[in-house]
Amino acid sequence: MQYLVRYHHLGAEQANILRNVKLGAKPQSSTFADMAGLESMIVEDKSQQAQKAVDREKTCPLLLRVFCSTGRHHSASEYNHGNVPTNELQIYTWMDATLRELTTLVRDVNPETRRKGTYFDFAIVSPDRSSMYRMREIGVTCSGQKGADDTKTLGHAKFTIGDYMDINITPPNRMPPPRRPRPY
Questions:
Q1: Keyword set for this entry (predicted)?
Q2: 3-class secondary structure, 175
Q3: Would you say 44 and 4 are in contact if contact means Cβ atoms under 8 Å apart?
Q4: What does the alpha-carbon distance between residue 153 and residue 131 come to, in Å, rounded to a whole number?
């Protein structure tokens, strides 16, 4: 197993201890007590970060219910009380599907979105504990241009089976969707 370790404000001795732990050396019980002076330490399993590739021949696809609108996202209240917007597109796909892949599928069925420079702003709509729905933006793609969110997968975006996908489609002659600062 490989680990990614981020740490701040380590002394030279503490940094050497951490390097030895990462390389597989068995730590002494006192070494972790010595590290109590750390301000923060995050240990993440890299194998979980890089999602396993789905074998699409052996894995059953999931139903992704997509709702597209032009110029804005649907309101989260349009999903409440068992209601959904009227313009539903049903896509069978896998958790490793990228936003670029989903863009291509939407473009295939919606001819006016095929123009170069059309923006696709993706959001996941999921229920909260009070049976109301919350919308969370996950990325933007653009027809004919490479972008940072093109390779983001449903798994990376923490999509859960049963969630909806809401896509704001912005034609090339309009302003692209505003980018909100991400909390991470």
A1: Repressor, Transcription, Transcription regulation
A2: coil
A3: yes
A4: 26
Run of H or E including 61: none
Q: Name the pLDDT band for 173 (thresholds 50, 70, 90).
A: confident
Residues across the chain: 184
Task: Name the DSSP letter for residue 86.
Answer: S
Region 79-106: mean pLDDT is: 89
How buried is 170 (Cβ within 10 angstroms: 0-12 exposed, 13-18 middle, 19+ buried)?
Answer: buried
What CA–CA distance (Å, rounded) separates 162 from 127?
9
SS3 label, residue 41: strand
Sign of CA pseudo-dihedral 103, 104, 106, 112: positive
pLDDT band for 91, please (50, 70, 90 cuts).
very high
Q: Rounded to whole angstroms, what are the CA distances from 181 to 88, 91, 110, 111, 124?
A: 29, 29, 29, 31, 17
Rg for the chain, CA atoms, rounded = 22
The dihedral through the CA atoms of 121, 132, 51, 62 has a sign that is negative
